[in-house]
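User: Here's a chain of 72 residues. Predict its fold as tokens.
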Amino acid sequence: MANIVLIDDDRNLLQMVKLMLTRAGHAVETAHDGEHGITLAQQQQPDLVVVDVMMPGMNGYDVVRRLRTGPQ
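Assistant: Prediction complete.
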């Protein structure tokens, strides 16, 4: 079982992917924007972060850059 953080602005897609991953036995946390996703990932220390590239405000590339520069 992996701990996964999903970050996507499309709430319907977010719930669908969460359901699929949960049924596969993974623990899944979701965020609907980049800032919340970064905070969640820093708190949870997940095994995997799945990020939508095209989001308003902070896009997926910006989220990944910020996560990579963190001490964790």
